Amino acid sequence: MTDQVRSSKLKFKGEKVKKKRKRTHDGDDEPRASSSSKRRLDDKDPETWVLPETVNELRGPTFIIHPSDPSPVSVNFISTTNRIAIQVLKSEDDSEPPPLLERTPTDVAQVWVVTRVAGADTINLRTGTGEGKFLSCDKHGVVTADRDARGPQEEWTPVVLPDGMVAFQNIYEKYLSIDEVAGGALQLRGDSEEVGFAERFWVKIQYKYKKEAHEEEKKRKDGLTAPNKIDEASTNHLYQAWGAGRSVVSEDDKKELKRARKEGRLAEALLDRRSKLKSDRFC
User: Which bin fits 119, alpha (ψ -120 to 50), beta or left (φ > 0)?
Assistant: First the structure.
């Protein structure tokens, strides 16, 4: 008779015993994520900078870099001059810099804030320093960051490419790019017809916003997100009024108003008729 080998792992009083799960073979060879691995993902620092996998994950503080040669650069905003600057990424000390995809912002000037209107495919890029200016592009491809309010020229459509890089398209269906000007200086342009090396950016976001996007997507798939309720009357009055508060209404509403006015005129005519009869009687 052989003695059963006992586990040498220490157990404490009150500790729950984990039951072993039997592995089932469904024909696919991909290992399933265990609860412990999911827990490790949840335990990740919310401030960790990660790469987005979908357009919906592009939100919150954002770090935009370009793998320029010979040195990678970041898209910065200098609040003292209100200008966009393309600056070479350098280490804080003289040590060898980390790989490009492990870089994180070291200055608030390198951070942009991505916002979007709910349900829209486009995003806005606002500066993370200064008064919060919006990145915009005119029809000539000139890119600036001096607008206090968002409009069509401040709308960008992000495209997540198969390799994980991101391209930004403006309302003129042209792409944001890094352009070399006289003297070897670099600047942003917004007039590229197609996506090439100059139009591809590495974009990093914070993990908590990526997790937030996943949770929203899960709720949407599970049907837990209720559709937005719109008060049509108040919306029309607020957004479709002009002149002396006149509102745009539907055809049915117009008919109701017309009928009400007609009935009102009839009532006034009857009152006038009665008043005239009474006056004639006493004359």
Answer: left
